[in-house]
Design a protein that fits this description.
With about 500 residues, this protein is α+β, with helices and mostly antiparallel strands. It folds into 4 domains: about 1-90 and about 105-110 and about 360-380, Transcription Regulator spoIIAA; about 120-230, Roll (Pdz3 Domain); about 235-355 and about 390-420, 2-enoyl-CoA Hydratase, Chain A, domain 1 (Alpha-Beta Complex); about 425-505, no CATH class. It is about 35% helix and about 15% strand. It starts with a helix and ends with a helix.
Length: about 500
Amino acid sequence: MNIQFLLTFATLLVSGGDRLLDDNAWRADISETAATIREYHPRPFRTVSAEDFALSLDALLRDVPDLSDKEIIVRLAALVALIDDGHTRLSIPRQHPEIGLEFGHTPTVAPDLEELEFGQLPVAFEKFEDGVFIVAASAEYAKLIGHRVTAINGMPIDDALATVQTITFTENSQLEALMGVDRLTLPEALVALGIGDSAESVTLGLGNGGKPTLEPLPRGHFDWVTSFDNGSLPLRLENPDEKFWAQHIADGNFVYMQMDEITDGDIPLAEFVVKTLAMAEDKDARLVIDIRNNFGGSGGLNKTLVMSLIQSEELNRYDRAFVLTGRRTFSAAQMLVNELEQYTRVSLVGEPTGSRPDHFGDPKKVRLKHSGLTLRVSRLHWSSYGAFDDRDASNPDFPVAWTSDDYFSANDPALDLAISAKDISLESLLRNALARKDQHQVGRYTLDSKRSPGTYQTNFSDLLLTLGNEALASGDTGIASFAYQVGLYFYPQHAGLSVALEELGP
C-alpha cells in the first residue's frame, strides 16, 4: 500500500452534495475504526508501521470537513486496507450487494441511511491471465459480455486496477485481482479515487475499439445476464445454491466433489465427506475436490476430510486425489489446503490460493455507531504448518492458468488435467517443483519421503544431486544451484551436494 498516496488523497477528491453526517459523527466513526483495529488485531502493523498508520489516520481526520460522505467512506476503506489482511475489512455499502463480491459468512447489515450506499455499474468484470473481461451484465448491456476491457474513464485498465488496490482488503495478488475488478464497478468510488470526474456515467474502453458509456443500475429489480445463460454450464457451476455436492462421472471415472463453504448443510459436512470418499473407493475412481469457489467457513470441520484421506490407502495418493484451488480459495478453505499439504498426498491443481497459508481470521464484527458501516477486524492468528512461512499463497503442484477463452467456452483445464494426469510420482513432482523454483513444495515432497519409507524409497539427497547435475549439463545454472542449495538444506552432511555447489561457484 502506498502511504504517500493516502496522505495526499484529498488532492484527488472533489466534494459533492450535502453531507448526511457532520464532521463530529464521521470523526467518531473513524476513531472507532482505528481503536478497534488496535485493540483486536493480533499484529496490525505487520506490513504497515504504526507510525505510517497514524499519519494516514491523522490526515483523514484532518480532511473530513473537505470531503463528501462517500469520499470519507473510500478514505476510511483505504485506511483499513493498510492492515493488509483479507479478514480485516470495511464493507463498502452497495445499492446492489447481490451482484457484488461478498465473502463474509454472516450478513452485512445495510447502513440506516440508504444514501450512503454506492451505485453499481450494470456489468461485472473478471481478471484472467489475458486481461480483464466483462462476464455478466444487465439485460440492456448483455451485448458487452465477452469483451476485453482496456480502459475505464480513459485510464488504462492496469493503472485503474493499481489505483483501486488501495481499497481492496487482500493479502496477495490473487485476491487483489478478484476484489480489484469488483471495485471498478462502483462509479462513486472511481470518482473518489480520481478515475473519472462523474458518477453519473462511466466510459469503458474495449479491446475491439468500442467506447460504451454506462449508467449505474437503478434501485430495485433488474434482469441479470451471464455468459452461460444460453449455453451449457461447466460442471463447477451446475449447483450454485448447494454448499457442497458430489457426483460420480462415469466418462473418465472420477468423483467430482465440490465444496463452496466449510459448513454443515442439509446434512452434516462430515457425513457428506465420508459418503463421497466411500463412493470414490467403491467406483475405483479418482477423487477431485473443487474448492475454487470456497471463501471458507468453520475450519474445525476440515478434520473429517483430512483424516478420511489419511486413512484411505486407495485415495491418499498423488495420482488419485486432486484438489482444485484458485483465487477464491480463502480462510478456512486455505486452512484445509494447509492440512492437506501437511498430512496427505493429494495433488493441488489450478491457480494459487487467495490467502496466505499463514494468516489472520475469526474477525470481530462492529457496526460503526454513526454511519452504520460494518467493520471486521481479525482476532486470531492462524499459523500454517511451515515454520517462518512467508508465502503469499499456496502454489499448486500443477499450475493451470485461468484464461478468458476457457471461461467463455465453458472449458475447465484444471479439471481436465486432474482427471487425465498420468505417471505422477514423487520424482516427477520434484522435477516440476525444481523447474518452478518452488522450495516449499520440494520440502513437502522431501518430508513425505522421510515420513513414509515403506511407501517411498526415493533417496532425495541423491535425486536432488542428479537433477541439479542434469540442469547444469543443459546450461541452466540457476536451477542447478537451487537444487544443490535445497538439497543441502535438508541433507547438510551430503558431500556430493556440497562439492557440486562449491564447484558451481557464486
